[in-house]
Amino acid sequence: MSRVASDATPGADRATGEAATLTRRGLLTVAFVLLLVVGLALPHAAAPDLGPRGWAPGTILPITLTPAAVTATLWTAYALGAAGVVLALRQGMRALSTPVVGGLALAAALTTPFGSADHVNYAAYGRILALGDDPWLVSPVSWRGDADPVVSAVESPWREEPSVYGPFATLLHGLGSLVGGDNLRETVWLWQLVVIASWLAVRWCLRRLLPGHEGRVDALWTANPLVFATGVLGAHVDMLAAAFVVGAVWAVQRYAGVGGAVLAGTFGGLALSSKFTYAVVLLAILLALRSRRVARGAVMIGVAALVAGVLHLWAGPHVFDQVGRSAKAVALSSPWRMLLEVGGGGPTVRSVISVLAALAAVGFAVCLARLTTPRGDGEGARALRWVVVLGGGYALAAAYSLPWYDVLVWSALPAVVSGVGVARVGLVELALLARLTVMSFAYTPGRVLGMTPGVEAVTMTVRKEVAPVLLLAVWAGVVVAALRARPRAPGVPNRPIG
């Protein structure tokens, strides 16, 4: 009888594994389909109307989603997607085939961006630049009588705000505006192509930086519905900056000597000139190169400074005005919001929060350093691990943060090994997935306009009351896990916790 049971075990395990694989594929497929339905539908509470399509793709699905329907659809997609990512990490998954990846890219190119109206802001600032004015100095509502067909489409609360985006990203927006002209949909679609190309470029670089781990790359990046939704379908500039970050790391590993340092410095300069916080890649690479590579590091920093310096000189003296003004902002979903409200919300308490957030970022970086090692001993894996440590510390602690700010961390996450937690999935992956899921829920539909009072009440409750508590729990989990972690050799995960 025992022999029969023993003989049956492999078959039962195989059946269980196949069922789990089917479940994971089903969860991810449904999540992607729901996201694409939102992107292919008529304008709604999550996606602003971009006007006449011109030669850009128009609406594929002639269906109208109510504010409640679009919110429920996105929340369902995020929940199913998060569960699918957990299963993918637990089971391991094969790399996606080229036709599947190409199909996702094509489908994304047919959608209208959703989750915010940031893409309209990009088009507006690019239009202002293309027509000879300074997008870092003038606000959309004050530009040319608020009568331009592209710039006047900017939505609250950004109509009164000059650009906060870096000079290189804005240069691309300006070039897109030269082609799209006064057609908003055409201008936005050209930017979508840049974002999709950036998403594919990150995958291409990661597969070469992490040979043998192509399935993990797709589990965390390509086939991750939350990254796809917030980064690609949201058409955010963070995707472009992340591509330069991973490209810089790839250049360091691919080309030894001065050539690799020059290319890495160029990509690093373009990354920080797209979004300033992405300058973290330069520090990450320096830490990965270690002291015996001082000359390469110096060349990289020098080239990055040259590239960024030229771009910022071209942009003019006002390029950092908005960054300075927004430095003390506190997001509604942030745990720091509790302290802001208790303290009365004045400038003094905001200054205190800024200091505490900076200290917390250092603390979380220390925690992530204790919980992770690089997946291999190459310079690329080491650099990406430092991107996770430094970028993840900042993302967790920042007083003002939005879901797409996490794109940087997820672009590097495949390169780390972390202690094993619930469901045999890495603690760091679980913590960051929990954060991204909570943030994605909190910023649905994502626009200020277009919601009914009932939907607004529900979504704002999630954003202002539920999300801060859940994010505080993520903080606690990371700290406790780090305190319990034991030192280990590179590449060896911690023993299971809990």
Automatic annotation (TrEMBL):
UniProt keyword annotations, A-Z: Membrane, Transmembrane, Transmembrane helix
Record carries keyword Protein biosynthesis: no
Transmembrane regions listed in the UniProt entry: 27-47, 67-89, 96-115, 188-206, 226-252, 258-287, 294-315, 352-371, 383-401, 430-446, 466-485
UniProt cross-references to PROSITE patterns, sorted A to Z: TAT
One of the Pfam families matching this protein, by short name: MptA_B_family
Name of this chain's protein: Alpha-1,6-mannosyltransferase
Taxonomic path: Bacteria, Bacillati, Actinomycetota, Actinomycetes, Micrococcales
